[in-house]
Amino acid sequence: MTEEQVRQLFVDTGAILEGHFLLTSGLHSELYVEKFQVLQDPEYTAKLCAALAERYKNENVELVVGPVTGGVLLAHEVGKNLGTRAIFTERENGKMTLRRGFVIKPGERVLIVEDIVTTGGSVVEVLDVVREHGGVPVGVGMLVDRSGGKVDFGIPHQALLNLTVPTFKPEECPLCKAGKPITKRGSRKI
Questions:
Q1: What's the rounded mean pLDDT across residues 57-75?
Q2: What is the pTM for the complete model shown?
Q3: Structural domains of the chain, ranges and CATH numbers in brackets
Q4: Which of 79, 161, 89, 87 is nearest to 121 (CA)?
Q5: Distance (Å, rounded) from C-alpha 18 to C-alpha 88?
Q6: Helix H segments across 56-141?
Q7: How far is CA 35 from CA 70, 130, 133, 155, 174, in A?
């Protein structure tokens, strides 16, 4: 899929929203990407994940890992396309970890997948888990990078859709200063 096809899919499904949003990161933004408007359709999810897998098909990936929630679907579908296992991380007592008997073998080549990246915080947490268990991160595949290319994980990373969306600390937010009501979105804010 081309980036324009991915963008159009997000637009057609109503996944790109405009307003005043409180993001999972705690930052404010006038644009929000509601990935589940796309991911609720198995056909769209399969197409997007096949496109992510295609970008990493020559990296000898042995395991795909994604963070809960959207990362579960992505890891499964990308893993299916790459012919690998797929697991996910989740928070336990506020710390990202492996649960449910999941194992990362020492030296195992791991692709991390994530749905929407703004600051990259969740990806960094997943990378830490992978490394703590002896895995070798070979890349990060993202549906959407909304950082404007500012995220850097120290390893190769690619997004199907790249957006440059200004984000603001609450105390510096022009939308707040203008009195525009805020909508809380994201996994930790709803």
A1: 95
A2: 0.88
A3: 3-184 (3.40.50.2020)
A4: 89
A5: 30
A6: 70-82, 121-132
A7: 8, 25, 29, 24, 25
Q: Is pLDDT at 189 greater than 60 in this prediction?
A: no
Q: E strands, 74-120, where?
A: 85-92, 95-97, 109-117
What share of the chain in percent tops pLDDT 90?
Answer: 83
- pLDDT value of position 180: 93
Residue that is written with structure tokens 């510096």 in the block? 172
CA distances (Å), origin 89, targets 23, 37, 77, 94, 97: 20, 23, 16, 12, 5
Residue whose entry in the numeric block shows the structure tokens 């790249």: 162
- The C-alpha atoms of residue 46 and residue 180 are separated, in whole angstroms, by 37
Pairing label, strands 136-145, 109-117: parallel
Amino acid at 82: L
